[in-house]
Amino acid sequence: MSSAAVYWLSLLGVGWVSATVLYGLSRRVGLIAVVDTLWSLGIGLGAVAYWIAFQSQEQMAFVVLSLVILWSSRLTYHLITDRVLPGKEDPRYARLAKYWGAAAPRNFLFLFWAQVPLVAIFLIPITVAMSAQDGGAGVADFLAVLVAVVAFVGEGVADRQLSRFRSNPENRGGVCQVGLWRYSRHPNYFFEWLHWWAYVFFAWGHSSWLLTWIGPLVMFLFLRYISGVPPAEKSSLESRGSAYRQYQKTTNAFFPWKPQKAES
Prior knowledge:
Layout: H1 3-29, H2 35-54, H3 59-84, H4 91-100, H5 104-131, H6 139-167, H7 187-195, H8 197-202, H9 214-226, H10 229-250
Helix pairs in contact: 1-2, 1-5, 2-3, 2-5, 3-5, 3-6, 4-5, 6-7, 7-9
């Protein structure tokens, strides 16, 4: 069996055990939102495991790894402090629990297990980007670093702006339209999507370059149409009503752009 096959099989095995243990913890604390940390942390640890397993000595490969760790650490920390530690269930999971009823415990276990193949899917562009580094940095590598930094800073700023807005009691029931949220209803999702373009540039010219497109394409599909924008919009409409509907009319859902004039 090749070393690559051993890596991916080990990743799946350890991942499913970890997902099961984390599911048990989430049931104990009564918070399904714990599942969100499994994905972000899993990708960071998976990238480190790949680095150790294949012992790449290329400097730019280490740059790719460092950016993955930076991204994973920030997002995991944000998810823990913003969703897990407050102890308030994410509206998405509360809605699913109500919809599934008695089947919720079983279905949520499957949700935790589903994070493992998702981690594997998003590790593909990262591992390709790391293995593509066989020389000094080129123009595409500098562009990749620039994209990764812009995405890291943009997502962090968007998360802080939203957290600061929500922490102010005077804004209760209001719609955040400050900073980046004035130009996109979900700037955090936009910059998360932008992050995955970095690996496309890192692997530029590599024989497996097309595999790196999995990152931005699959991420856009999930964020824009499945697990990102749709449930977030539904929750906002339920809690903010007409104010959020007006926000929808003036501000792009995903890509930042100049807001339109509000209707009188």
